[in-house]
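Hi R.,

As promised on Friday, here is the backbone we talked about, encoded as structure tokens. Could you run it through your design pipeline when you get a chance and send me back a sequence?
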């Protein structure tokens, strides 16, 4: 009996390329909804509604330029997005027309509010207390804003809904810390 041995890179992609999908649809799938399987791991819906399809000159690469209305993790992009460099990946699937409405409705994205100041890590807190004499030193949180981010800093007077605490956590062996003050 012969044994099969696979050689080469493996992939996590599931589905077809955009070339295969739009090539088999009437009007090249304009108005239809395509989902990238890699993005189905998120609880919020991620999908693309096809607006325009253009073929690219090099047929060997089997790439296609698709202009879409993109929704990533429940947030719709304000402008149309062109997909061409990743269109060759076999990671797309076409939603059936009867599934489109329920899938695109999805669930709303909840915004997570992070405190603007957090405690220092325990050892650094001890050093800062000795140097400055402050009883409870805090560090200011800086965040880089992004159009896909569901996190934001709490404004003045606003209560955060995410708790960030510094500490040692639960030790692997509590008996080692039995006589220590934490």
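Update: got your reply. Pasting your designed sequence below so it's all in one thread:
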């Amino acid at each position: 009996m012969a044994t099969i041995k696979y050689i080469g890179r493996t992939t996590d992609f599931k589905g077809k390329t955009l070339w295969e999908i739009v090539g088999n649809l009437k009007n090249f799938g304009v108005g239809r909804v395509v989902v990238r399987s890699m993005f189905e791991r998120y609880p919020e819906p991620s999908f693309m509604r096809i607006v325009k399809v253009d073929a690219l000159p090099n047929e060997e690469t089997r790439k296609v330029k698709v202009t879409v209305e993109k929704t990533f993790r429940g947030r719709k992009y304000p402008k149309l997005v062109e997909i061409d460099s990743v269109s060759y990946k076999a990671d797309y699937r076409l939603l059936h027309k009867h599934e489109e409405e329920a899938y695109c409705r999805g669930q709303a994205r909840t915004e997570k509010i992070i405190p603007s100041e957090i405690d220092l890590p325990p050892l650094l807190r001890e050093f800062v207390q000795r140097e400055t004499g402050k009883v409870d030193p805090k560090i200011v949180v800086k965040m880089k804003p992004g159009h896909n981010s569901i996190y934001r800093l709490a404004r003045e007077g606003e209560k955060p809904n995410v708790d960030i605490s510094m500490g040692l956590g639960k030790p692997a062996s509590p008996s080692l810390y039995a006589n220590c003050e934490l």
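One thing I noticed while checking it: Residues 44 and 73 are 5 Å apart (CA to CA).

Thanks again,
M.
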